[in-house]
Design goal:
single chain; Arc Repressor Mutant, subunit A; 2 domains; two-stranded antiparallel ribbon; disordered N terminus
Amino acid sequence: MSGRLVPSPSSSSIGVVSPGNPAEIKRILEVALLTAQEPLPLSDLRKIFDEELSAEVLRRLLEELRRDWEGKGVELVNVASGWRFQAKPEMQKFLDRINPQRPPRYSRAVLETLAIIAYRQPVTRGDIEEIRGVSVSGTILKALESRGWIAAIGHRDVPGRPALYGTTANFLNDLNLRSLAELPPLDELGSVIEQKGTMGLLPIPDTPADDAPE
């Protein structure tokens, strides 16, 4: 040994990933997305690389990563809140054997209320009742809010200032949609919700008051 000290890496060089190494970037993206609890938007993913990578480059690498996972039981998808890995729908029946859950069933009142909010938003409770022709149970609205599918996004400037309801990014995430423009035709919404919007979610209880005046 020469006895010469080897300089330690500077703090500025630690954790630096070269933009010219797409394989390493994809490996880091893969780890970040596989361990994330929620979808990650591009803004968060750029922070991993100290924003050295442009959003355009990240999108391209994410698309490559998505293709890398094609043919496997897990897929990379882009939803309203960002990118995430998830089990493919056809794998759910096998996962249910580990943690069996009875798929939630939704009453007509729940589906109609949610559909009106999704397709006509922003709407008040009075708007929903006018369209449906019956009173809307407060239980339904509270349950949809608790699930994170709808939220009060403002108030109508009329006497009483009733709350205006709209759907949330979480609603789109649960249906694997990126925007409201991707909503299915109205007559298909119920089946899509029951197919895609059930993983890890508790059923919204039906109540005798669903269509009854309060």
